Amino acid sequence: QVQLVESGGGLVQPGRSLRLSCTASRSIFSFVALSWYRLAPGNQREFVALINRNGDTNYADSVKGRFTVSRDSAEKVSLQMNSLKPEDTAVYYCNSQWAGVDYWGQGTQVTVSS
């Protein structure tokens, strides 16, 4: 069993930054990878970023150069979001797989608006 808890969402103006965190109930090194997804109203859930146990990262084209995923500790991964745009508005989720089961956090709302 794995629990993933996101935090750090909020309301921010365009061009500003926000840092999201995902805290896991077990070491993230037990996962092959931990990913961030987002879901905006009327859209399908969209891949945002990924970090694997080797520290390799991957990003959606829409956030490349603006978002950075990193490991803060053995249980915590962060998503630094810079130069935010209104189209980044969504609920952000972290996701991982362990023992063949897909786990999701409850999500954290990010709203980018002036």
Brief rundown of the structure:
It is built from no helices and eleven strands. Strand 7 and strand 8 form a beta hairpin.
Describe this structure in words.
By secondary structure, the protein is mainly β. It contains no helices and 11 strands. The protein has strands spanning 4-7, 10-12, 18-24, 33-39, 46-52, 57-59, 67-73, 76-81, 90-98, 101-104, 108-112. Strands 2, 4, 5, 6, 9, 10 and 11 form a 7-stranded mixed beta sheet that branches. A 4-stranded antiparallel beta sheet has the order 1-3-8-7, with no helix packed on it. The protein starts with a strand and ends with a strand. The model has no long low-confidence stretch (mean pLDDT 95).
How would you state the average pLDDT, rounded? 95
Largest sheet: 7 strands, mixed
Question: What is the share of helical residues?
Answer: under 10%
Gross morphology: globular
How many DSSP H or I helices? 0
Work out the radius of gyration.
13 Å
- Ends distance: 40 Å
Runs with pLDDT <50, length 5+?
A: none
Which structural class best describes the helix and strand composition? mainly beta
